[in-house]
């Protein structure tokens, strides 16, 4: 594996391998010395064209625990926005010795372009590109699900038969896209819920069951419900009439939460709009995985960086 | 008087013959005996077409000289077999006054590679609010007859109605870039399964079709002429077909790229394939080809849109819309329509020369290759084939989408008003063309 750009081209074996390596990484976090020497002498560049403190910190922490040298480049408001092209920026970073570039970009396909345009030769990790994909988020979600379901016995397993309902702005959600492909590959049964206005074109061809109404999807008694963040400005573009109506029809309200099966997990990629897409009683319950997701994010990103940067070297040797 | 003899070309009726050009006009066609001092072009195996006319070119001058100039754009045109181009108004300053259109027209005349007919803006600054001085541009030395806000849609129905009515008084036509702006805010590619997967904002077919439907009804109501730029969907073809059947004075164009490429090209996020209107589904490509063959779509026009590398070497959403097309247009038409048996070479002459000239009010193209007509002609070798690359380009920009594709046909010679601009497949140098053209 040279790049991680989308979960769409991960097969089941590769996906399970990443989750298994992440389990190893998680195990080291419990040790006294948390650092591994795996990427000593390697340089990982975090190239962030879009603000995202939590994702940036997660990748920084992952790279540091692997002993890599970490350069963080916040391209927002720098020379990039003054006309330097994506190509120029990438070539500059490679000239600084980047072995891997973790890129976050507001435009869909930016990571794919960096990987495939022939401009540079470094490994590329997509840390979120526009409304396209966010593969490490999906991997950490799958990791979180697998751990909750299989506990200490999780290694080597996929998510066969796990029913996951993903709710909200599917149209603009990179988290939803990455989760759809990955969870389906891992054998999960994926249900998507959104008003018709927030369903992307071609959703009928996706390996999912689509519902317009949340209550129809919750009636399937899912193992997990993943609530996506809804952006308030979508109202202005007439995707839905009001926050109140959205919350009433597509929010995980206290009433809906109470009616869920007792072991249904509640997931959210964060940051949450409490009271809009998710009620506090759901977000703060023991069935919420929100904080685990953050912790697991570091393990997954360690696994991905390890497999891309150290793994490539193994293959070449 | 010495002349130029094209020897043994395949003429539009399919027969082989010679063409003698004297003093910028076609002097004789058929079996011609050379006079002393005549120059010869061996056209054995070549098809003789009337000089091609592009109703939709972006020459970028004034203001966008980093991408193209009148000189570089008309050199690209000549290399592609064109002898006349209609230059779109979205320059800087916008071609919305007599001064700007006269400047562009004069540059074309000075360089001599092709006749440059400026298109005037419909509204001041292409802003869609106030009519530009259409009458002044029509009465200027540039004799503007085609008006367009291309790049922008004349979206306001009242402005569109008035523009259609107003140009009727000066014998002009409105060329509409049909794109409902609210339905395409932030749009990046064809709305369909691939846009959903790639996370690129969709440009739905209905945003084009609804404007064309509105505009043909306005054209009927105002008894005016409407030309629809770059039709890109099967649904648009249906609307135009309906309008023509009803007797509405509408003409329509399609670009070469919409006759060949589909939205699948976006899969790699390579912005060379980013164009407006976007590349559509395979079903649309089929419908567009059939519509050219049956005459529903009247012409092929390039929408030649040069951009510097840096506007394409970036993320898709940040890249400019458009692709160059003058050098490749005839090859794409041969590939998609002639070699598929949908159009013969006389049909090519119709969609790439006679009809675009008629729509644009350009004289000298109504009797192709006839004795006495101005000598605008193109010789193409239909048996040639080229693996396309940026080396085939003659303009200032390199944003061609066809790199790596093998395309049929090659322009061997282009003659503009008796002046050879391409000979033996190569451009004649600028000084020679300017001097020869100026001497006329
Ligand atoms: Zn246009």
TrEMBL record, chain A:
<feature type="domain" description="Aspartate/ornithine carbamoyltransferase carbamoyl-P binding">
    <location>
        <begin position="2"/>
        <end position="146"/>
    </location>
</feature>
<dbReference type="InterPro" id="IPR036901">
    <property type="entry name" value="Asp/Orn_carbamoylTrfase_sf"/>
</dbReference>
<feature type="binding site">
    <location>
        <position position="54"/>
    </location>
    <ligand>
        <name>carbamoyl phosphate</name>
    </ligand>
</feature>
<dbReference type="GO" id="GO:0006207">
    <property type="term" value="P:'de novo' pyrimidine nucleobase biosynthetic process"/>
</dbReference>
<dbReference type="GO" id="GO:0016597">
    <property type="term" value="F:amino acid binding"/>
</dbReference>
<comment type="pathway">
    <text>Pyrimidine metabolism; UMP biosynthesis via de novo pathway; (S)-dihydroorotate from bicarbonate: step 2/3.</text>
</comment>
<dbReference type="GO" id="GO:0044205">
    <property type="term" value="P:'de novo' UMP biosynthetic process"/>
</dbReference>
<feature type="domain" description="Aspartate/ornithine carbamoyltransferase Asp/Orn-binding">
    <location>
        <begin position="161"/>
        <end position="308"/>
    </location>
</feature>
<dbReference type="GO" id="GO:0005829">
    <property type="term" value="C:cytosol"/>
</dbReference>
<dbReference type="Pfam" id="PF02729">
    <property type="entry name" value="OTCace_N"/>
</dbReference>
<feature type="binding site">
    <location>
        <position position="137"/>
    </location>
    <ligand>
        <name>carbamoyl phosphate</name>
    </ligand>
</feature>
<dbReference type="GO" id="GO:0006520">
    <property type="term" value="P:amino acid metabolic process"/>
</dbReference>
<feature type="binding site">
    <location>
        <position position="104"/>
    </location>
    <ligand>
        <name>carbamoyl phosphate</name>
    </ligand>
</feature>
<feature type="binding site">
    <location>
        <position position="174"/>
    </location>
    <ligand>
        <name>L-aspartate</name>
    </ligand>
</feature>
<feature type="binding site">
    <location>
        <position position="134"/>
    </location>
    <ligand>
        <name>carbamoyl phosphate</name>
    </ligand>
</feature>
<comment type="function">
    <text>Catalyzes the condensation of carbamoyl phosphate and aspartate to form carbamoyl aspartate and inorganic phosphate, the committed step in the de novo pyrimidine nucleotide biosynthesis pathway.</text>
</comment>
<dbReference type="InterPro" id="IPR002082">
    <property type="entry name" value="Asp_carbamoyltransf"/>
</dbReference>
<feature type="binding site">
    <location>
        <position position="271"/>
    </location>
    <ligand>
        <name>carbamoyl phosphate</name>
    </ligand>
</feature>
<comment type="subunit">
    <text>Heterododecamer (2C3:3R2) of six catalytic PyrB chains organized as two trimers (C3), and six regulatory PyrI chains organized as three dimers (R2).</text>
</comment>
<dbReference type="InterPro" id="IPR006131">
    <property type="entry name" value="Asp_carbamoyltransf_Asp/Orn-bd"/>
</dbReference>
<comment type="similarity">
    <text>Belongs to the aspartate/ornithine carbamoyltransferase superfamily. ATCase family.</text>
</comment>
<keyword id="KW-0665">Pyrimidine biosynthesis</keyword>
UniProtKB/TrEMBL annotation, chain B:
<comment type="similarity">
    <text>Belongs to the metallo-dependent hydrolases superfamily. DHOase family. Class I DHOase subfamily.</text>
</comment>
<keyword id="KW-0862">Zinc</keyword>
<dbReference type="InterPro" id="IPR032466">
    <property type="entry name" value="Metal_Hydrolase"/>
</dbReference>
<dbReference type="GO" id="GO:0005737">
    <property type="term" value="C:cytoplasm"/>
</dbReference>
<dbReference type="InterPro" id="IPR011059">
    <property type="entry name" value="Metal-dep_hydrolase_composite"/>
</dbReference>
<protein>
    <recommendedName>
        <fullName>Dihydroorotase</fullName>
        <ecNumber>3.5.2.3</ecNumber>
    </recommendedName>
</protein>
<dbReference type="GO" id="GO:0008270">
    <property type="term" value="F:zinc ion binding"/>
</dbReference>
<feature type="binding site">
    <location>
        <position position="56"/>
    </location>
    <ligand>
        <name>Zn(2+) 1</name>
    </ligand>
</feature>
<feature type="domain" description="Dihydroorotase catalytic">
    <location>
        <begin position="47"/>
        <end position="234"/>
    </location>
</feature>
<dbReference type="GO" id="GO:0004038">
    <property type="term" value="F:allantoinase activity"/>
</dbReference>
<comment type="pathway">
    <text>Pyrimidine metabolism; UMP biosynthesis via de novo pathway; (S)-dihydroorotate from bicarbonate: step 3/3.</text>
</comment>
<dbReference type="InterPro" id="IPR050138">
    <property type="entry name" value="DHOase/Allantoinase_Hydrolase"/>
</dbReference>
<keyword id="KW-0665">Pyrimidine biosynthesis</keyword>
<feature type="binding site">
    <location>
        <position position="230"/>
    </location>
    <ligand>
        <name>Zn(2+) 2</name>
    </ligand>
</feature>
<dbReference type="GO" id="GO:0006145">
    <property type="term" value="P:purine nucleobase catabolic process"/>
</dbReference>
<comment type="function">
    <text>Catalyzes the reversible cyclization of carbamoyl aspartate to dihydroorotate.</text>
</comment>
<dbReference type="InterPro" id="IPR002195">
    <property type="entry name" value="Dihydroorotase_CS"/>
</dbReference>
<feature type="binding site">
    <location>
        <begin position="58"/>
        <end position="60"/>
    </location>
    <ligand>
        <name>substrate</name>
    </ligand>
</feature>
<dbReference type="InterPro" id="IPR024403">
    <property type="entry name" value="DHOase_cat"/>
</dbReference>
<keyword id="KW-0378">Hydrolase</keyword>
<dbReference type="GO" id="GO:0044205">
    <property type="term" value="P:'de novo' UMP biosynthetic process"/>
</dbReference>
<dbReference type="Pfam" id="PF12890">
    <property type="entry name" value="DHOase"/>
</dbReference>
């Amino acid at each position: 594996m040279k790049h991680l750009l989308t979960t769409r081209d991960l097969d089941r074996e590769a996906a399970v391998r990443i989750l298994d390596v992440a389990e190893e990484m998680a195990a080291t976090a419990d040790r006294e010395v948390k650092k591994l020497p795996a990427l000593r002498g390697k340089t990982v560049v975090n190239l962030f064209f879009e603000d995202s403190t939590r994702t940036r910190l997660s990748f920084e922490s992952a790279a540091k625990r692997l002993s890599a040298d970490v350069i963080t480049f916040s391209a927002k408001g720098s020379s990039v926005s003054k006309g330097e092209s994506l190509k120029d920026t990438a070539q500059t970073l490679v000239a600084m010795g980047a072995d891997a570039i973790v890129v976050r970009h507001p435009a869909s396909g930016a990571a794919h372009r960096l990987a495939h345009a022939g401009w540079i030769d470094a490994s590329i990790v997509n840390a979120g590109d526009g409304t396209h994909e966010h593969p490490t988020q999906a991997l950490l979600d799958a990791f979180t699900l697998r751990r909750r379901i299989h506990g200490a016995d999780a290694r080597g397993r996929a998510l066969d038969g796990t029913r996951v309902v993903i709710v909200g702005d599917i149209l603009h959600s990179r988290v939803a896209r990455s989760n759809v492909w990955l969870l389906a590959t891992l054998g999960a049964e994926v249900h998507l819920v959104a008003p018709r206005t927030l369903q992307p074109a071609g959703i009928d061809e996706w390996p999912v069951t689509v519902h317009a109404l949340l209550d129809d999807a919750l009636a399937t008694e899912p193992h997990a419900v993943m609530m996506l963040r809804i952006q308030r400005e979508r109202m202005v573009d007439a995707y839905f009439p009001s926050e109140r109506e959205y919350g009433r029809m597509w929010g995980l309200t206290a009433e809906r939460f109470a009616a869920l099966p007792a072991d249904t997990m509640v997931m959210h990629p964060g940051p949450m709009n409490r009271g809009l897409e998710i009620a506090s009683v759901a977000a703060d319950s023991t069935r919420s995985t929100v904080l685990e997701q953050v912790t697991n994010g570091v393990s997954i990103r360690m696994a991905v960086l390890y497999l891309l940067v150290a793994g490539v070297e193994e293959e070449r040797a | 008087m010495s002349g130029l003899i094209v020897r043994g070309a395949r003429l539009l009726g399919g027969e082989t013959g010679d063409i003698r050009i004297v003093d910028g006009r076609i002097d004789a066609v058929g079996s011609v005996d050379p006079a002393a001092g005549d120059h010869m072009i061996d056209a054995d195996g070549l098809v003789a077409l009337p000089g091609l006319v592009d109703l939709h070119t972006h020459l970028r001058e004034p203001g966008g000289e980093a991408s193209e100039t009148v000189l570089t754009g008309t050199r690209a045109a000549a290399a592609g077999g064109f002898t006349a181009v209609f230059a779109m108004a979205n320059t800087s300053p916008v071609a919305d006054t007599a001064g700007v259109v006269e400047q562009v027209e004069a540059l074309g005349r000075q360089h001599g590679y092709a006749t440059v007919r400026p298109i005037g803006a419909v509204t001041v600054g292409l802003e869609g609010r106030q009519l530009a001085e259409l009458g002044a541009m029509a009465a200027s030395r540039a004799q503007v007859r085609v008006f367009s806000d291309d790049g922008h849609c004349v979206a306001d129905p009242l402005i569109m109605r008035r523009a259609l009515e107003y140009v009727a008084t000066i014998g002009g036509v409105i060329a509409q870039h049909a794109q409902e702006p609210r339905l395409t805010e932030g749009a990046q590619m064809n709305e369909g399964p691939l846009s959903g997967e790639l996370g690129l904002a969709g440009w739905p077919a209905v945003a084009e079709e609804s404007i064309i439907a509105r505009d043909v009804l306005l054209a009927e109501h105002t008894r005016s002429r409407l030309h629809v730029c770059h039709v890109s969907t099967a649904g648009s073809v249906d609307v135009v077909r309906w309008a023509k059947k009803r007797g509405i004075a509408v003409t329509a164009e399609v670009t070469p790229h919409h006759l060949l490429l589909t939205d699948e090209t976006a899969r790699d996020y390579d912005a060379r394939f980013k164009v407006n209107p976007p590349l559509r589904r395979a079903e649309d490509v089929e419908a567009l080809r059939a519509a050219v063959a049956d005459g529903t779509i009247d012409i092929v026009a390039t929408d030649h849109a040069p951009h510097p590398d840096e506007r394409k070497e970036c993320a898709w959403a940040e890249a400019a819309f458009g692709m160059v097309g003058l050098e490749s247009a005839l090859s794409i038409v041969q590939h998609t329509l002639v070699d598929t048996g949908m159009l013969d070479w006389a049909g090519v002459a119709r969609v790439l020369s006679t009809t675009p000239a008629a729509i644009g009010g350009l004289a000298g193209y109504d009797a192709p290759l006839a004795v006495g007509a101005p000598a605008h002609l193109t010789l193409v070798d239909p048996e040639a084939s080229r693996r396309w690359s940026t080396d085939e380009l003659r303009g200032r920009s390199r944003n061609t989408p066809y790199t790596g594709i093998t395309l049929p046909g090659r322009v061997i010679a282009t003659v503009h008003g008796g002046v050879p601009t391409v000979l033996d497949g190569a451009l004649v140098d600028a000084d020679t063309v300017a001097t020869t053209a100026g001497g006329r």
